[in-house]
Specification:
The chain is built from four helices and 16 strands. It is mainly beta and about 250 residues long. The protein has one domain: Ribonuclease Z/Hydroxyacylglutathione hydrolase-like (Metallo-beta-lactamase, Chain A, 4-Layer Sandwich). The strands form two sheets. It has a nine-stranded mixed β-sheet. It has a seven-stranded mixed β-sheet with strand order 10-11-12-13-14-15-16.
Length: about 250
């Protein structure tokens, strides 16, 4: 176990830590003013957040075995593509009172989902504590299947800023380095995508970090790209710690 102190937050990195019934996977624990936040990378864009005795799953995807994971109190979906919106995986981790939050496009495909447009905010109660959720834009600036079309058109998908006490976590979703990132501000932990041809290169993701300025950043959703290129691009960038984890 290693303990890292960074800008007033405490991160405990643990390898192979297993909760009851949960596969042995690397996870990190973030000390927040509202209690511990455990972060478990799962696969690709999928991750699990545990806080206040509750479980939040982000973009569950059936390429991971979700039968071994705890059921979700909250599921966040960023986009309508199958590596984010997987009805089978959602069903596997859903219980009677699971809340699903997604973009308005996601809500049209998931009957139980609460739709949240870019710029919208909501608050949910988990374990007697309030979790703030803000949907932020996630879209392509230049990349698409043909000229004039984009893999991720503006308004269809969401990134999310989650507020745990006074700790803010940014999940980028599928996006390029859009201007709105400069407006997010005050982020403790960020998850930034980087894969071609659908989102962006590691070098472009470096520019996203310079806009968002997180204290800790995890490259994720990087299939086919080398996250070490991203890490190298941020060497010497003060106040930012890069966390490489095994998503594949």
């Amino acid at each position: 176990m290693k303990i890292f102190g960074l800008s007033g937050i405490l991160l405990i990195a643990t390898a192979g830590l297993a909760a009851q019934g949960v596969p042995q996977m690397q996870n990190d624990v973030l000390k927040t003013t509202a209690g511990d936040l455990k972060i478990t990378p799962i696969r690709h864009a999928s991750l699990m957040l545990e806080w206040a005795g509750s479980v939040v799953h982000v973009d569950p995807w059936s390429q991971a075995d979700y039968s071994a994971f705890p059921k979700a109190d909250l599921i966040l979906i960023t986009d309508t593509h199958s590596d984010h919106l997987d009805l089978k995986a959602i069903a596997t981790i859903t219980k009677a009172d699971t809340l699903v939050v997604g973009s308005e496009a996601v809500a049209r495909s998931v009957a139980t989902a609460r739709g949240l447009a870019n710029g919208g905010s909501t608050e949910v109660e988990l374990g007697g504590k309030k979790l703030g959720i803000t949907a932020v834009p996630a879209y392509n600036l230049t990349r698409g299947p043909v000229a004039g079309q984009y893999y991720h058109p503006k308004g269809r998908g969401n990134g999310y800023v989650l507020t745990f006490g006074n700790t803010r976590v940014y999940i980028s979703g599928d996006t390029e380095c859009i201007p709105e990132m400069a407006e997010i501000g005050n982020i403790d932990v960020a998850f930034l995508c980087m894969n071609l041809p659908y989102t962006q290169t590691p070098q472009e993701a470096v520019e996203c970090v310079k806009k968002v300025r997180p204290k800790v950043v995890y490259p994720y959703h990087y299939y086919g790209q080398d996250p070490k290129t991203f890490e190298a691009g941020l060497r010497g960038e003060t106040g930012v710690e890069v966390r490489l984890r095994n998503w594949y």
